[in-house]
């Protein structure tokens, strides 16, 4: 996308697209509805983004970056990271829906080389690998597995809306689930803390 | 749904609906397309199932039951269970897509009391609770957490199609991921084996 003096229009398109994709997914999203909500025309949307899928990838990448800012990956404290990720997902369910649609709807193995999702994953894997080299994380795990397992555990409950009580029980229920997530990640990938002695590798 | 002499028609509807929902999700599925594929009419579909959502809940419950048959939950060997669940998801990606759509599209907290998904979860939680009482599983965990964590870990990689290499590397990659899943579940919820001495509770 080229940024120029019509930034205001593109900002409105991005905001409208984020809401539309979170709600309807990629196939269900209507570019016409996005254009209308952004007070512009369909052809303007396609002038910025070459396709509906490209628009989805752009807004999903943007949300992922926002999430990475809000939930800093600290490889010396993965339990804390998982807890923050759980909090974020519970607080912003629509952002997580946005990402999930992509897993279901994007054709497999066809991400463009500059896909921001892939890029963000590569950066995180690199961070974990360095923490393994520094003795903060057991080097017996592949860093990809660490990343995916922590995020799967962290998001265990945020998406289980049918299993989560509504009403006044909700907060206590989610607090207990959060504590269990942190405990599970602590057992798998114990926090060392940046000022603690690194654990013996392979312990 | 009432079963009667027109079982052949309802079987065709169920088969067509399973494929349609796996591919397009709930909102994207077209009852007309399902009816056509099942060589019947839309009104017949609605005679069996009162709504598209009811039809989805029926086929998703059916798939879940088939999966539970294929991947037996053995509370004394959760690592083995996780490995089998991973295998099943890798072998039948369309069945897992079918379940994921429900998480995204079904309205939260509105499952009917006889929802087969809820029913299947309740049964599994009960099995885990009994295994905790018998000393096979650490009773410090809530059984719901055990169930969700094991299934999140088991399905870590089956859905990550963008992170999975295609071509000849694929099998070795997935075998390594499977081994990591089994190792992670073993660390969290060690297998005792039905003939082994139960682990000390809380160990």
Structural key phrases:
65% helix; 0% strand; globular; 2 domains; 9 helices; homodimer; 203 residues; mainly alpha; Arc Repressor Mutant, subunit A; Tetracycline Repressor, domain 2
Can you put this structure into words, describing what you see?
- The structure is a homodimer of 203-residue chains.
- Chain A is mainly α and 203 residues long.
- Chain A folds into 2 domains: 1-49, Arc Repressor Mutant, subunit A (Orthogonal Bundle), CATH 1.10.10; 59-203, Orthogonal Bundle (Tetracycline Repressor, domain 2), CATH 1.10.357.
- In chain A, 65% of the residues lie in helices and 0% in strands.
- Chain A has helices at 7-28, 31-37, 42-48, 52-70, 78-91, 93-105, 116-133, 143-154, 169-188.
- In chain A, α1 (7-28) crosses α4 (52-70) and α5 runs antiparallel to α9 (169-188).
- Chain A is globular, with a radius of gyration of 19 Å.
- Chain A starts with 6 loop residues before the first helix and ends in a 15-residue tail after the last helix.
- In chain A, 34% of the residues are buried.
- Mean pLDDT of chain A is 87; it is low at 196-203.
- The A-B interface holds A 24-25, 27-28, 97, 100-101, 103-104, 106, 108-109, 111, 117-118, 121, 141-142, 144-145, 148-149, 152-153, 155-157, 159-164, 166, 176-177, 180-181, 184, 187-188 and B 24-25, 27-28, 97, 100-101, 103-104, 106, 108-109, 111, 117-118, 121, 141-142, 144-145, 148-149, 152-153, 155-157, 159-164, 166, 176-177, 180-181, 184, 187-188.
């Amino acid at each position: 996308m080229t940024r120029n003096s019509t930034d205001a229009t593109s900002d409105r398109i991005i905001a409208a697209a984020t809401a539309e994709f979170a709600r309807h997914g990629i196939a269900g999203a209507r570019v016409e509805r996005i254009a209308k909500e952004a007070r512009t025309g369909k052809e303007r949307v396609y002038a910025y983004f070459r396709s509906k899928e490209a628009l989805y990838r752009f807004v999903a990448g943007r949300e992922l970056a926002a999430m990475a800012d809000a939930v800093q990956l600290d490889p010396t404290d993965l339990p804390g990271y998982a807890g923050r990720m759980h909090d974020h997902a519970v607080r912003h369910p629509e952002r997580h829906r946005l990402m999930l649609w992509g897993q279901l709807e994007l054709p497999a193995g066809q991400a463009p080389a500059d896909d921001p999702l892939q890029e963000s994953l590569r950066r995180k894997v690199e961070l974990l690998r360095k923490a393994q080299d520094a003795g903060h994380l057991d080097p017996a795990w592949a860093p990809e597995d660490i990343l995916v397992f922590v995020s799967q555990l962290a998001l265990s409950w945020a998406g289980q809306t049918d299993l989560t009580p509504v009403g006044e029980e909700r907060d206590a229920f989610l607090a207990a689930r959060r504590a269990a997530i942190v405990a599970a990640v602590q057992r798998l990938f114990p926090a060392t803390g940046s000022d603690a002695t690194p654990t013996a590798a392979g312990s």
